[in-house]
Fold this sequence. Notes:
Distance between the termini: 60 Å
Number of strands: 32
Structural class: alpha+beta
Amino acid sequence: MNRSGKISWTNQTLPREDIINERGWLDRLEEEARTQRLGLDYRKDRSIFRVWAPQREEVLLHLYRNREDREGFCLPMDKAGGIFQARVDRDLDGFYYTYRVGDQEVTDPYSLSASLNSRRTAIVNMEETNPPGFSSSSFVDTPPDQAIIYEVHVGDFTFDRTSGVKCAGKFLGMVEEGRKYHFTSTGLDHLKKLGITHVHLMPINDFISVDEDPEAFGREDNYNWGYDPELYNVPEGSYAGRPDDPKSRIRDCKAMIQAFHESGIGVIMDVVYNHTWKSYDSNLNILAPGYYYRSSHGLFTNGSGVGNELASERTMVRKLIIDSLLFWQKEYKVDGFRFDLMALTDRETIDLALARLREVNPNILVYGEPWTGGPSGLDFKDQVRWSGQVGKGFALFNEVFRQMVKGDNDGPGKGFIQGGVGNKEVMTNGLMGSIRTDSIDGGVRDPIESINYFNAHDNLILEDKLSLTNPDGDLNDPMTRLAFGLLLTAQGIPFFHAGNEFRRSKAMSPNSYNAPYSINAVNWTLKLKHRSLYHYVRDLIQIRKDFPVFRLSSGRSVRDRVRVIDLQNDNMISLVYQVDEGNHRDYLLVVHHNGWKGGVMPTSGLFRALKAYQLSIQKIFDPKGRVACNRVEGGESDLPFIHLQPLSTTIFSITKGGSYGL
Length: 662
């Protein structure tokens, strides 16, 4: 994942920059090809193969009768424009194929399935891969402003024996029901009870770094997050029950998505269209030398930090990306996409993709990382950066919110939850959805353009970051509660990583992308140990669902219905929320307190903000979770202070008993 450096071209794959730059010649070929169907067009009575290889003079189709066939046979392909095509008039279900270019064999970039470890493209009848009821199923009906996203790696979630899952570390293991550790729900039941709306699955398409041989599964040196793509449209074989069966990986993946949908949980797919793991020797580059990648002076540019970057601005690269997105949406019924290093995919491609995806599912949820992994060959003006999502219908990860909550990623820096002061105004703006206010411009127009988070899979997980900044660890639990309090009451889309809700650790690893399962697997004993924290997060999620004012979709609504209470205390942030539009009687008061000792909040600012001379106040949420306390009533002299616990988020129900100045 962290490998970097420019990859030089071999003579065989030297980028013909003179050809690529002859736009008239290339424009004509691209225009002819952009509407054609590429890859395999399968029917029982015939199969048509099409591949983009504009500079090649000859490409052969190499067919194999089964996975044991070592020799196979070759068929010529006809070239029309920039596309090679071949037709075979028989049922090829169960066959495999490659494209032969000179003495090299490569898989089809549009492969739908593959042999073990992606050596050959598999021919499958996709109609035979649907689990019962899958064809009639559909997306979840959850709009983006209601999303609560849970990021998880398929293997991590159930590999550990404490999950109690039979298909541990597999697609089907993700959705086994009734699994427990000592009467504590694990797996899918855990997610349903927690109340999240979407699972964000770290890469589930075919990646190259994990050996798919069942004998290698779970081996200490056979783990990866999956940000090393090989075949964009093929489910990862190591997650299948039978990796050597090309239909198993498809059927298992669909069954997993179907089970999530039946549980009311949407599925977001993590996509890596910014680079490929292979570089000069990739199937893309062997078929079309120099076309699919950005290059300069004979070298790949390295905006991804791993050796190359896809040239998404080119017509047929853009087509590859959009075709792939639509394939996963239509064939697998994926509810959304998270773009890795989104800044490397040009803005026009993102706009075009969103328009096509939204035609199929108006509730499609799309977000990504507004940064690159290094200097890019894509002009900065064409990169998707923070604020570039404004008015575009997608969201970006809010790294300012992340830093305000917990400080820097892997160092000693502290944020609000560790008692940090000095950035209260920026943290408050994050709670307002990072919109433009009178005091600060957070960079977005509407809060749903911001993905709020305190950690994702990258860098130190929150528990380890807190252990670094608070070596004795005594305050990790209340600080975690405060982090979730900030996250789940903030305007915008909340996102957290698997196990944050019960203090999962990764043994202080800041980059566990290829660490073994002993580091990465979710240890479900932690849920039992920290079950009160889990209940706290569950209650907080339910409060967010119960009160739509915590998930307003427009900046105007936030400005109209959320007010900041001016407190002369750097350790407290207080906001008051109008529960219903047009209702000037019922409010919620949320107070975030990062002091390490109990605190007292004067109520004078609250009475002024609501222009009230009498209030009725009831605490409904505190560090223990949801509570039902007695309601107290009176004027400012009767209720001069609100007492707060250390490192706490506290929520009160407020009813006005009278107003002045109206």
